[in-house]
Design goal:
This protein has 496 residues and is α+β, with helices and mostly antiparallel strands. 58% of the residues lie in helices and 18% in strands. The longest helix has 86 residues. It starts with a helix and ends with a strand.
Length: 496
């Protein structure tokens, strides 16, 4: 009944823990999904703004191209005007006022007019450039750039971009550079990178670790799988791609429930371990008190029994009966001694463990049911070990009685002792009903018992005697239901 209640308590505890974990994961997942949805909405607005700004840059470049074409047309017309002036007949009634005003009206485009290799006019050329050498150098430079218009009769018109166009072009370059920088750097706290047209090289990156940037191909492929790349078609730079990742906050939020549960689990484990240690300590104090009180209570009737033996001897009772009675009284004295040693540091003596185990099993065999077949195998040479005879005898007696109870008074009991790798190894095997895996996990727990009677302290005390008092180990070597159980006890032996 106690084991069943304990099982129900564990099931309830497990169900409560599972509910807490499920609720924590669900709530954190819901927050993560909400945050991701909000982040995706912001990224969608951000990407739409990028596309619109890219379109604005492209449109501005179209205007610049139109302005460049218009300046060439102006230079062409200006050259034509110079040609008309050069070819005009002074005596002819031609009004050149408009043409002259057209030429003088050019206040932005630098123009050099040559005829037959001789400078005819320079317009809008800076004052510092108006020396023969510098003007000739400017002419060569303009010719190399192809900004020259050739007319008949050797008339050549060289022109440069206007000062206004240069200023606008500088503004355009700054605009493109600023656009790319702001696109990558001002990315609403999400990791962003700019890749080339072939999605092979990273041109700029923000909020990425150095290790991530080491493998360019893998990073680009991962980002392309997370979010579709945004295409940018910018003047002069060509096609570019913007790739972005989830924000660091969103990634951390995904792992937050796991970290939180680990911290809570660690705290609960520490609390449970502390509570269990206190509980075991309290149980030990209770058992020690009970054991000592039992030894004290047995002392008085034991002394009386010893006196009655002497009385019976004076009454000339058969001596063989008195001898057996004295053996049982001696056994009671040993039991009392065992109880009195619980909770105290026992005195260990170096002795032949094989001889002690053989004598103890012989004594127990005479007092066990005849239907139980005993097989005792001891080493041929003395096996020296440090042990307390009273307490270790209790271990042997408890394991033997449990084995006989498991066989229900009929079966085979094998006890074998040998020296294995510097340790005394003792196996006690029975052909009883065996134990399930659940029982094997709990059989050494204080208070656990499969019997209707008893306190469930026997094997718990056996383990304490073997481990704490003798520095040994006790385990269930094997156990199968319906076949039997083998307990193994291991103690250190004298190395001399």
């Amino acid at each position: 009944m106690r084991a069943q209640n304990k099982q129900y308590s564990r099931l309830i505890l497990f169900a409560g823990a599972f509910s807490i974990v499920a609720l924590t994961l669900w709530s954190s997942g819901r927050i993560a999904r909400t945050l991701r949805s909000e982040e995706q909405r912001k990224v969608a607005l951000w990407s739409e703004a990028i596309v619109q700004r890219a379109e604005l840059v492209r449109y501005t470049d179209v205007l610049f191209a139109s302005l460049r074409s218009e300046e060439r047309d102006k230079a062409d017309l200006m050259g034509e005007a110079y040609r008309i002036i050069q070819e005009a007949d002074p005596g002819a009634p031609i009004d050149l006022t408009f043409i002259t005003r057209f030429i003088q009206g050019n206040r932005t485009i630098p123009v050099l007019v040559y005829k037959g290799g001789v400078l005819q006019a320079d317009i809008n050329v800076p004052e510092v450039m108006r020396t023969p050498d510098r003007l000739d150098s400017l002419r060569v430079s303009l010719a190399d750039r192809g900004t020259v218009i050739e007319f008949e009769q050797g008339l050549m018109v060289y022109y440069d971009q206007s000062n206004r166009f240069r200023e606008l072009k500088s503004v355009m370059d700054d605009l493109i550079h600023s656009f790319i920088s702001e696109t990558v750097l001002n990315s609403a706290s999400i990791p962003v990178l700019l890749a080339d047209s072939g999605l092979r090289n990273i041109l700029q990156a923000h909020r990425f670790d150095t290790d991530e940037l080491g493998d360019t191909t893998a990073l680009i492929q991962r980002l392309a799988a997370v979010n579709p790349p945004i295409a940018l078609d910018l003047p002069e730079t060509g096609k570019r791609w913007i790739l972005y990742d989830e924000s660091l906050v969103l990634k951390q939020l995904r792992y937050f429930p796991v970290v939180q549960l680990l911290i809570i689990g660690g705290f609960l484990l520490l609390a449970y371990s502390t509570f269990s240690a206190f509980r075991r300590s309290e149980q030990n104090r209770v058992w020690v008190g009970m054991a000592k009180e039992t030894a004290h209570q047995l002392g008085t009737p034991l002394s009386a029994l010893m006196a009655w033996v002497e009385v019976l001897r004076s009454e000339e009772v058969a001596e063989d009966v008195l001898v057996e009675l004295e053996k049982d009284i001696g056994r009671l004295r040993t039991v009392t001694d065992r109880f009195s040693k619980i909770g105290s540091d026992p005195e260990l003596t170096m002795d032949d463990l094989g001889a002690f185990v053989g004598e103890t099993m012989a004594y127990l065999q005479r007092r066990m049911p005849k239907a139980v077949t005993f097989t005792v195998s001891m080493p041929e040479v003395p096996l020296q070990a440090s042990f307390n005879p009273a307490l270790f005898g209790w271990v042997l007696e408890n394991l033997t009685k449990n084995a006989v109870d498991a066989m229900e008074g009929a079966g085979e009991l094998e006890v074998r002792l040998w020296n294995e790798l510097g340790r005394a190894t003792l196996d006690i095997r029975d052909t009883g009903r065996g134990m399930s895996r659940r029982v094997q996990r709990q059989v050494f727990d204080p208070g656990f018992s499969t019997k209707k009677r008893g306190w469930g302290l026997g094997l718990s005390l056996v383990r304490r005697i073997v481990k704490e008092y003798h520095g040994g180990q006790i385990t269930i070597l094997r156990s199968e239901e319906g076949i039997g159980t083998t307990f193994r006890v291991s103690l250190p032996v004298d190395s001399d």
